[in-house]
């Protein structure tokens, strides 16, 4: 287990984390509780953001990991990292609404970028964001991500991803060039977590 500043710990998720992670992700994006934070999607999507099967699939996927971020033993955030050749994909990012707005998201994305650069040797981080989420896209732009204009359709009719409240939803690809890893670190295997 790695410890970051402010007593945050980062570790790979395991199956026993699934219920807590589903609750965390839902609280950050859907329903009235999500309105306590600024990442809510409650005005554009109803229904679920994810489910236990979706989280379990990310945990089990080869070539990736789901990081759990804990504070005082409580999961407060998570993010998916997937190795895609010369790039890494950043997804399933959620921060508990009561922890939003204090710099935690910036700290987590910085740690995610460091890990994929040092452990996988990739030079680009990619993500997809619902294109009408201008406030969220602006936040990522301040972190160095750029809009590409490359869109993919929202999966209308598949309630596993939510129930759209408008008909113009699509995903836009955002990318960020990552600086080269320090000499001797790029492409190294992941460091083992405690207990391995």
How would you sum up this structure, described in words?
The protein is built from 4 helices and 10 strands. It is of the alpha+beta class. Strands 1-2-4-5-6-7-10-8 form an 8-stranded mixed β-sheet, sandwiched between helices. A two-stranded antiparallel ribbon has the order 3-9. The protein is globular.
What is the arithmetic mean of pLDDT? 89
Poorly predicted residue ranges: 186-196
Radius of gyration (CA) equals 16 Å
Q: Tell the overall outline.
A: globular
Q: Helix- and strand-based class?
A: alpha+beta
- The end-to-end distance, rounded to whole angstroms, is 10 Å
The level of helicity is: 10-25%
Strand content: 25-35%
Count of DSSP-assigned helices:
4
């Amino acid at each position: 287990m790695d410890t970051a500043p402010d007593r945050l710990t980062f570790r790979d998720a395991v199956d026993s984390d699934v219920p807590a992670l589903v609750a965390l992700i839902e609280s950050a994006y859907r329903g009235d509780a999500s309105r306590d934070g600024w990442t809510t999607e409650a005005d554009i999507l109803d229904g679920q953001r994810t489910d236990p099967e979706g989280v379990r699939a990310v945990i089990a996927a080869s070539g990736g990991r789901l990081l759990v971020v804990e504070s005082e033993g409580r999961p407060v955030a998570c993010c998916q990292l997937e190795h895609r050749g010369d790039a890494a994909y950043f997804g399933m990012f959620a921060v508990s609404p009561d922890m939003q707005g204090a710099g935690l998201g910036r700290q987590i994305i910085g740690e995610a970028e460091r890990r994929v650069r040092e452990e996988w040797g990739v030079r680009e981080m990619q993500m997809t964001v619902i294109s009408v989420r201008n406030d969220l896209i602006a936040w990522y732009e301040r972190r160095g991500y750029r809009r590409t204009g490359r869109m993919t359709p929202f999966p209308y009719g598949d309630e596993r991803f939510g129930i759209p409240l408008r008909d113009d939803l699509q995903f836009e690809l955002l990318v960020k060039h990552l600086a080269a890893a320090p000499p001797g670190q790029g492409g190294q295997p992941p460091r083992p977590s405690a207990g391995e």
